[in-house]
Write a structure and sequence with these properties.
The complex is a heterodimer of chains A (797) and B (225). By secondary structure, chain A is α+β, with helices and mostly antiparallel strands. Helix content of chain A is 49%, strand content 18%. The radius of gyration of chain A is 34 Å and the shape is globular. The mean pLDDT of chain B is 89. Chain B has helices at residues 44-51, 74-84, 100-111, 115-128, 144-156, 174-189, 201-204; strands spanning 2-12, 17-28, 33-37, 59-64, 67-68, 85-89, 162-166, 193-197, 209-214, 217-223. The chains are: A alpha+beta (797), B alpha/beta (225). The A-B interface holds A 1, 4, 8, 11-12, 15, 311-312, 314-323, 325, 401-403, 406-408 and B 45, 49, 52, 54-55, 74-75, 78-79, 81-83, 87, 89, 91, 93-98, 102, 106-107, 109-111, 154, 158.
């Protein structure tokens, strides 16, 4: 019997290739999305599960209040780990860590390494990272030792055994001994590194203060439940510890976070950006939604074919089939289609894994598609789809009365048509919603791309520098500007697109506790020239201004400031009034205001323009090199060769300011890409569904069409008649989707201080697009029906 | 074998009632060959559907082998039907996706007959209907007469006690029609009861008894044998 079902299923699929193909393609698309999202979700949920002691590890979050403002974050001072280990019996071990970037050299190999982590020797006791070479007990003991990951070791040493080799680290070229090689960090680890240096190499004070919170502390507790007994002890303990340093309502305390919760539940990042459980839920919902849409398409297409299958059902019933036998036969067909779709989608998922990885910023392996859990998941999904998508058509078909269908008097009563129309409307609601969302995001991204930031970010090359370069920075600048392709060179602390350094500032006549929080950037006399910021009062720094801070003696230093309009306003000055006024940046930098510039965007459009101070200190992290824009390739080659001569201790690394500017909106770009993909999928599936429904309805109206044509209706009349009903569905869907999309996208835009408005034309465009799509889909069937010979359709009745 | 008493069937649409069977009383004995005639809309097809357990009467009594079947649910009717009744239709009603062999095999599958036994019985009946050489063809590859022979083969493969034929020659030319009528006659002679609805006086003459219907009632009975 089962063989018989499978046989007839295959023959039917083969006979109606187009329908089968559409069905299989629709389900395959839905399943592919589902598979990719499932491995992504599984990967995210598996974060840090490989840590054998993960249940007992907690991360220490610092919370402090100073003058009423509460600050909280994943930073602690060096003192927390030793102090907690000593004072709390719950703590078995503690580790302090600090992630940074370091220039590293081994013989001729010189790289700026971005994943260099310093950690106490307890690191290897607490975490389960595998040491391949070296002694686990001693690998991180003592200063100036470093452990490489396997791929980092291969990069520097090739096939040689690195243990015992000496590398130099940092701008000071400190020699470090390699003491071990570790397995590369697995992709589902919140702690990621290429190198681990011993914490004692850092040369920071070990336990002087609870301030200077620049490190991450993890505690290994004696039991997982110890977190509950330890947490309440911390506040009173810290009150006692800090009694001499804080008073009044101020306090310092710490919160413990279960290590395994960090990646999905903590607002504070690990050694890489966290994910959020909310996103996981959203992704799961989207995956289910897409799968549901795919099933709806299947339902619509299968029921569309029910008339063709009616005769067969009638004959089978007359031949003695029970209703449930017919039901299972159609479920069987749906199973064949689902399995075919699963096979196709598995292949598709493998092919699309790389693009998906790029989109999701992950590195998921193909093998994860075939893990036992995924195979089980696939089995369950297939059964669900088979039953979900197959049962409605099966119920409809198995319910046919044989006498009706066999006597040719068969007419579908329209039962279920309402349901099928609702499914189509639902599919189009999602499609329209996504189309509007894509349009809005594109509009905002275009606005970000094209908006004048208040300075010129084009053709600016950014070169990371370090303090060792201070000595010959003037030479570097001169050599660079000798090239005609280079207009100017400026030294800065932060890139002007994202100035994050925070200070306090006040007028000289304000009390210290009246300070205003500002962002401030160290710049030199060429900053304004290089970036093209506009002065509205006063003037730019001079070379002399730069010399005014080059004294060892703090007392002799003279600071000069350039404020943006907002900073001047917050200090109570008009731009003109500000010039020459005395002010402080921080507590120890007395100086005078030299100029006021027009506000420019120095952080992302999510934020309003805040007060900004530019000031003259003689250090920096980046050189900004303004190119003329001609012969860029040669100019960069010139930069590289000059760099190698002038700065032999650092590799030549560069990026364009504009690229980093775009990176500020990475998550928006990603969201845009994800939504574009979903919108395309949703529209495609909705089209397939509509195609199915129109095929069905037009089949039903074949006789009517014939009669109308005999009575003189033109092809255009008939097409219009048939398309009208479907347009109504699409318009209804749009009317439901529009206000929804308007609400959600306005909410999304609220995150931007500088934003576009949603605008009527977006809805008009979306409406045109979706109506065009619907018309094209329906007209396939409608035109076919309209041009067919009426005699044929009338005779079949 | 079949005892029908005061059977009523009314088809209702929104504002029209059509009386298909009007207190019909009617009997067929085991081994009889009965032809039912009458103009279109007289209720003969409705009668055939009810006798074939494909449709329910509104009221009245229907004894099939002395068992009252009026109150049977769909499952019980299907069960009774597949063990006792074979159907032959004017339009053959073969499944296009199945071969001749598979079409004939269908009732045996639903009866739960084993594969080997099925093969034997299907081949036997195809042989008897002289269509064995076409066993692997699909219906659309056969002539009308051949298709109807396949349909008859399918109707008799499970050895039903009753065959219901609804204008079995309606779509056939006269020589093919005669062939099919001869087949039915042969089956009847071997003991199968046959009820046949027809418009053709010629075909009706193959039967033992002609029942003429009008407006849902029998009006005359001609006994031919």
């Amino acid at each position: 019997m089962i063989r018989h079902y499978i046989k007839i299923a295959f023959r039917n699929l083969w006979k109606k290739k187009t329908f089968s193909l559409i069905n299989i393609i629709g389900l395959s698309i839905g399943l592919t999305c589902c598979l990719l999202m499932a491995i992504y979700i599984r990967h995210e949920l598996s974060y840090d599960h490989f840590q054998e002691k993960g249940d007992r590890i907690v991360r220490v979050i610092m919370e402090y209040s100073f003058g009423g403002a509460i600050q909280k974050g994943n930073f602690t001072s060096t003192k927390v780990a030793p102090s907690f280990s000593r004072n709390f019996p719950e703590v078995e071990k503690a580790v302090r860590m600090s992630g940074t970037s370091r220039v590293m050299r081994y013989e001729e190999k010189l790289f700026n390494e971005k994943s260099f982590v310093y950690a106490d020797s307890t690191f290897l006791d607490i975490f389960s990272f595998k040491l391949i070479l070296g002694n686990r007990a001693q690998a991180l003991s003592g200063p100036n030792v470093v452990v490489f990951t396997k791929s980092a070791a291969a990069k520097y040493f090739g096939d040689e055994n690195p243990v015992g080799k000496i590398v130099t680290v940092g701008s000071g070229s400190v020699p470090y001994t390699v003491t071990g090689v570790m397995e590369d960090c697995s992709s589902n680890s919140q702690i990621k590194f290429d190198f681990i240096g011993s914490f004692s190499s850092l040369g920071v004070t070990q336990e002087n203060t609870y301030w200077d919170a620049n490190f991450t502390t993890y505690l290994l507790l004696r039991s997982a439940s110890a977190i509950h007994t330890l947490q309440p002890k911390i506040r009173p303990f810290m009150q006692h510890e800090m009694a001499a340093e804080v008073s009044g309502k101020d306090y310092v305390t710490y919160e413990l976070e279960p290590f395994k919760d960090v990646h999905l539940y903590s607002p504070y990042d690990g050694f890489e950006p966290n994910n959020s459980i909310t996103y996981i839920y959203i992704i799961a919902a989207v995956a289910l939604l897409i799968l549901a849409i795919a099933c709806f398409t299947y339902i619509n297409l299968s029921t569309a074919r029910s008339i063709e299958r009616a005769k067969e059902v009638g004959i089978r019933k007359v031949a003695g089939a029970f209703k449930n036998q017919i039901f299972w036969q159609f479920i069987g067909e749906s199973l064949v289609i689902s399995v075919a779709a699963l096979l196709i989608s598995t292949v598709l998922a493998c092919l699309l894994l790389q693009p998906f990885n790029n989109l999701a910023d992950r590195n998921l392996a193909i093998g994860s598609l075939f893990s036992p859990a995924m195979l089980l998941f696939e089995l369950v999904v297939i059964l669900c789809i088979t039953l979900l998508a197959g049962s409605y058509p099966a119920v409809i078909l198995s319910g046919f009365q044989p006498i009706r269908v066999l006597k040719g008097a068969f007419k579908n009563s329209g039962t279920g048509l309402v349901l099928r129309k609702s499914l189509i409307v639902f599919q189009f609601i999602i499609s329209v919603f996504l189309i509007v969302a894509c349009f809005v995001i594109q509009k905002q991204l275009e606005y970000i791309r094209s908006k004048n930031l208040g300075f010129d970010r084009d053709h600016i090359v950014v070169l990371p520098m370090d303090q060792k370069m201070k000595a010959n920075i003037a030479t570097v600048k001169t050599v660079f500007t000798n090239n005609p392709g280079i207009r100017s060179v400026a030294r800065v602390n932060n890139e002007p697109i994202n100035i994050v350094a925070g200070y306090s500032m006040r007028r000289a006549d304000m009390a210290e506790n009246q300070s205003i929080i500002v962002n401030a950037n160290v710049v030199d006399e060429d900053f304004a020239k290089t970036t093209g910021v506009h002065f509205i009062a006063g003037e730019d720094f001079s070379e002399q201004d730069m010399k005014d801070v080059e004294y060892e003696d703090q007392e002799k230093k003279q600071y000069h400031y350039i404020l943006n309009e907002t900073a001047a306003r917050e200090l109570g000055w008009t731009p003109a009034q500000a010039i020459g006024k005395k002010m402080f940046l921080g507590t120890h930098r007395p100086g005078t205001v030299k100029g006021v510039i027009k506000d420019f965007h120095f952080s992302s459009f999510h934020n309003p323009i805040k007060p900004l101070v530019l000031f003259n200190e003689n250090w920096g992290n980046y050189l900004l090199v303004k190119l003329s824009g001609e012969n860029m390739q040669q100019t960069i080659e010139y930069l590289e060769s000059s760099w190698k001569n002038l700065v032999p201790h650092r590799p030549f690394e560069f990026h364009f300011l504009d690229d980093n500017y775009n990176k500020l909106y990475n998550s928006e770009h990603r969201l845009g890409k994800v939504l574009n993909t979903f919108a395309a999928i949703a529209v495609l599936l909705a089209m397939l569904g509509l195609f199915g429904l129109s095929a069905y309805v037009i089949q039903q109206r074949n006789k009517e069409i014939g009669i109308r044509k005999v009575l003189g209706a033109s092809v255009a009349n008939v097409v219009a008649l048939l398309s009208k009903d479907f347009l109504q569905l699409v318009i209804a869907a749009s009317l439901i989707a529009f206000p929804l999309a308007w609400l959600v996208m306005n909410k999304w835009l609220q995150d931007f201080t500088f934003r576009v408005s949603v605008g009527v034309w977006i809805f008009v465009a979306a409406a045109f697009l979706i109506i065009a799509i619907a018309l094209i889909t329906v007209s396939f069937q409608a035109i076919k029906a309209a041009v067919s010979n009426p005699v044929k359709s009338l005779r079949t009745e | 074998m079949i005892r029908i008493k005061e059977l009523e069937k009314v088809y209702r649409t929104e504002d029209v009632e059509t009386v298909a069977l009007n207190k019909l009383t009617f009997e067929v004995k085991e081994g009889e060959f009965v032809a039912v005639m009458g103009p279109s809309g007289c209720g003969k097809s409705t009668l055939l559907n009810i006798v074939g357990l494909l449709d329910d009467p509104d009221s009245g009594s229907f004894l099939f082998n002395d068992i009252e079947v009026v109150d049977f649910n769909e499952r019980k009717r299907a069960d009774l039907r597949k063990r006792n009744i074979g159907f032959v239709f004017q339009s053959f009603n073969l499944i296009d996706e199945l071969t001749v062999f598979e079409n004939v095999e269908l009732p045996l599958i639903y009866l739960g007959v084993k594969t080997d036994e099925r093969k034997k019985r299907v081949e036997a009946v195809l042989d008897k209907m002289q269509i064995m050489h076409r066993r692997n063809h699909y219906p659309q590859q056969l002539s009308g007469g051949q298709q109807q022979r396949v349909a008859v083969a399918r109707a008799v493969v499970n050895n039903p006690r009753l065959i219901l034929a609804d204008e079995p020659t309606g779509n056939l030319d006269s020589s093919n029609g005669n062939e099919v009528m001869q087949l039915l006659t042969d089956l009847n002679e071997q003991g199968t009861t046959i009820i046949m609805v027809t418009h053709s006086e010629h075909d009706a003459r193959y039967s033992h008894r002609i029942i003429r219907m009008l407006d849902g009632q029998t009006v005359t009975e001609n006994i031919l044998v």
